[in-house]
Amino acid sequence: MRQRLSSLPAWRRRTGIALFVLGSFLPSFIPLIYIIGFEGWVAVALTGAFSIGLPELLWLMAAIFIGRDGVAHLWRHVKVRGRLLLRLLRRP
After folding, report:
1. How many folded domains does the chain comprise?
2. Residue 3: inside a domain, yes or no?
3. What is the DSSP string of 50-92?
4. Within-domain flag for 19
5. Is residue 27 within 8 Å of 47, Cβ to Cβ?
6. Residue 76 maps to a domain
7. pLDDT at 9
8. pLDDT number for residue 38
């Protein structure tokens, strides 16, 4: 049975989308670790977590809230928007 995002309760849909977006943009926060000035081993641990572990964990939690079909729908949306953005950037 295919589950649509609009059929979910609003709180589950919003939470799932927020987790998905946070997991997608979490690696871009890595420079903040070094700007804040954490100690060496803490900075290395946070960098590894932000780049490898936490995004996948957040996507898994998003799948728990919105389901596998919901996450697939969000990935399709991201891919389409990314292609449109690349087309706009390539235009002279």
Report:
1. 1
2. no
3. IIIIHHHHHHHHHHHHHHHHHHHHHHHHHHHHHHHHHHHHH--
4. yes
5. no
6. yes
7. 81
8. 84
Position 43 in a domain? yes
CA atoms within 13 A on the CB side of 18: 6
Burial 24-54 (b: 16+ CB within 10 A, else e): bebeeeeeebeeeeeeeeeeeebbeebeeeb
Per-residue pLDDT of the chain (92 residues; tens, 9 = 90+): 345 666 778 888 888 889 988 888 888 888 988 898 888 899 999 898 888 888 999 989 988 888 888 888 888 888 888 899 899 998 87
The residue segments making up the domain with residue 52 are 9-90
In contact, 89 and 72? CB cutoff 8 Å: no
DSSP-derived 3-state class of residue 8: coil
Q: Which two tokens stand for residue 41?
A: 């081993």
